[in-house]
Amino acid sequence: xxxxxxxxxxxxxxxxxxxxxxxxxxxxxxxxxxxxxxxxxxxxxxxxxxxxxxxxxxxxxxxxxxxxxxxxxxxxxxxxxxxxxxxxxxxxxxxxxxxxxxxxxxxxxxxxxxxxxxxxxxxxxxxxxxxxxxxxxxxxxxxxxxxxxxxxxxxxxxxxxxxxxxxxxxxxxxxxxxxxxxxxxxxxxxxxxxxxxxxxxxxxxxxxxxxxxxxxxxxxxxxxxxxxxxxxxxxxxxxxxxxxxxxxxxxxxxxxxxxxxxxxxxxxxxxxxxxxxxxxxxxxxxxxxxxxxxxxxxxxxxxxxxx
Length: 307
Ligand SMILES: Nc1ncnc2c1ncn2[C@@H]1O[C@H](COP(=O)(O)OP(=O)(O)O)[C@@H](O)[C@H]1O
Ligand SMILES: [Mg+2]
Hints:
The protein has 2 domains: about 5-220, Rossmann fold; about 225-305, Alpha-Beta Plaits, CATH 3.30.70. It is built from 11 helices and 14 strands. α3 packs across α4 (about 110-125). It has a 6-stranded mixed β-sheet, with helices on both faces. A 4-stranded antiparallel β-sheet has the order 2-1-4-5, covered by helices on one side. Strands 12-13-11-14 form a 4-stranded antiparallel β-sheet, sandwiched between helices. β4 (about 60-65) and β5 form a beta hairpin. The protein is an alpha/beta fold. The model has no long low-confidence stretch (mean pLDDT about 90). The chain has helices at about 45-50, 75-80, 95-105, 110-125, 140-150, 170-185, 195-200, 220-225, 240-250, 270-280, 295-305; strands at about 5-15, 20-30, 35, 60-65, 65-70, 80-85, 155-160, 190-195, 205-210, 215-220, 230-235, 255, 260-265, 285-295. Magnesium ion binds near residues 44, 45, 85, 161 and 162.
């Protein structure tokens, strides 16, 4: 049996002369937790909207469980759950009424709506807010309810577009706990977009978009391991002088304002302490911070955009 949940071929979207997504190719298999990453404007939402039949592609194809998004949009929508970047909740209605409405949209019988709503409210710790209007919920509770709304019909594929944007860390952690509970209960495939890269480190696979192009794809841990053994991070005034002095030894540096990042591989390690002590001697007054640390997905992202 074909295990492919999302099959995207040469998918493209243009607005006039502007290309928002260029010839995207993606395969996502059953049960995968897949992250589509990239800065604002990279084309993440446009890609998700094409895959969920909300935006018509300019060219190329996208199939969801074998159903073509242009030829069989109704089929596609039945199989997917969508949590938009902007809330889809009716703020005047209560928590329960919002879930009930989502159930009605998917033709679920009343008994099933009740059972699922109660289950999700319990799972997401919202039971005591059942009869409260959405406008009286906190931002985090609203986001959780948005997710509950998106999974009322137990979709086999869930699109989550920046689900935790603007939320504090404990709330973000809670939301992830809920999503992983749902995944383990239902085997649901998840396509996530985010620019909180630490959240994407738990994905099975990620793809980086840059100006509508897929520039890197892989398992996050492998991508991090392939990037470098360690990262040397230096904060200094006049960082250009430091780049000049270290370039020959450590290769190109990535610069963000006064901070420099150098990739270190295993072979360079033995000379490193000498390099750093020389550096301290030479630039003592200019150095603000020197650290050697493990690389992370954020570094992968920075280097992708540096190329
Ligand atoms: N309806 C539209 N008309 C014109 N340009 C659009 C439209 N929708 C998106 N874009 C442009 O396409 C690019 C990608 O947008 P989007 O997919 O929302 O990016 P992301 O979700 O990665 O932040 C942006 O430059 C955006 O301005
Ligand atoms: Mg977006």
